[in-house]
Amino acid sequence: MISKYLVPVEQVDAVRDAHLAFLEGLEAQNLVVTAGRQDPPVGGVVLLNVEDEGRAREIIAQDPYVLSKVAEYTATGWIPARGALKDYPKA
């Protein structure tokens, strides 16, 4: 999931602690592979380990960034074929 901030980053940061707690909960369920803010900070990337786009959208709809309307996400499917994530366990 690739996010785009809809408001200035200062407004996004007001919700950031809740967003990071949300991601931590997903990590505990082995649903997040990695995540981080883009540079420059215009959005972020959340790499989810889920079976399909529908599940990814269902999960990300609960992100405090989405619920607070400070960011929106675009789903981008990806299958790692090389590198460190090539053999990452599939959901």
UniProtKB/TrEMBL annotation:
Q: Which domain of life is it from?
A: Bacteria
Q: Name one Pfam family in it.
A: YCII
Write down the SUPFAM superfamilies for this protein, in alphabetical order.
Dimeric alpha+beta barrel
Give the InterPro entries listed for this entry: Dimeric_a/b-barrel, YCII
Q: Boundaries of each YCII-related domain copy? A: 10-74
Q: Which residues form a coiled coil?
A: none
- List the Gene3D superfamilies: Dimeric alpha+beta barrel
Q: Which family does it belong to?
A: Belongs to the YciI family.
Q: Which PANTHER family match?
A: GSR2449 PROTEIN, YCII-RELATED DOMAIN-CONTAINING PROTEIN
Record-given protein name: YCII-related domain-containing protein
